[in-house]
Structure formats: C-alpha cells, structure tokens
Design a protein that fits this description.
The chain has three helices and four strands; from the N terminus they run αβαββαβ. Strands 2-3-1-4 form a four-stranded antiparallel sheet. It has a single domain, classed as 2-Layer Sandwich (Alpha-Beta Plaits). By secondary structure, it is of the alpha+beta class. A hairpin with a 4-residue loop joins strand 2 and strand 3. The protein is elongated.
Length: 109
C-alpha cells in the first residue's frame, strides 16, 4: 500500500490497468523553516517556487504514464490528476510524492 490510500487501493482492485482514475497527489511538505527570511510576500513567493520545483518531476512522471495534470495547489502542496490505474504505483515511487488518494467531495454544511 505505502503511499496509496486504502480507499484508492480498494478502487484499484475493481478496475483494469487502463481505466483512468482521478486522484489527488500530495507532495512532501516544503520545510518552511528553510525558506529565506523576508517579507510575507517574499516568503510566499519562495514557497510557491519550492512547490514548482517539487512538482516538476511528478508532473513529468504523470504525463509520461499517459496521465494529465488537471490542477495544482501550492498552498496545500497537491496535484489533481487523471491517469491510468496501472500507472499509479509508478507515480507513487517519485521521491516528492507523500501520498495519493481519491478526491474527497466537499459538501455544504
């Protein structure tokens, strides 16, 4: 299982390797204590740049596996993507990947 959530592993057991699956890839958190000192604006820019550096090899692996990056969010260090079920374990091998899960729907209160 490793970096794949239990929900995702369960889903993978019911589909074939070529079925496209929409997932959220969570990247390893950026060490904010290592960011340069400066104004809030400068620290945010440094965090965004660090996210882009971590994202690049993950996005390349997703696309090389026949997937598509649908959306990224630097604030919570995530990448929403769609890729063949059989490629998920390959993406999970990327060092920058912390976890992969199915999207969680958000409902109004």
């Amino acid at each position: 299982m490793g970096k794949l959530s239990p929900r995702l592993v369960e889903c993978l057991e019911s589909v074939d390797r070529v079925t496209p699956i929409e997932v959220v890839v969570e990247l390893q958190p950026v060490d904010v204590t290592a960011l340069p000192a400066g104004s809030r604006h400068e620290r945010v820019a440094a965090l965004q740049a660090a996210f882009q550096r971590e994202l690049a090899p993950v996005a390349q692996r997703i696309e090389a596996a026949g997937g598509t990056v649908l959306e990224t969010a630097w604030l919570n260090q995530t990448v929403r993507s769609r890729l063949p079920a059989g490629a998920l374990r390959s993406v999970a091998e990327e060092v920058a990947v912390h976890a992969i899960d199915l999207p969680h729907p958000i409902y109004p209160a």
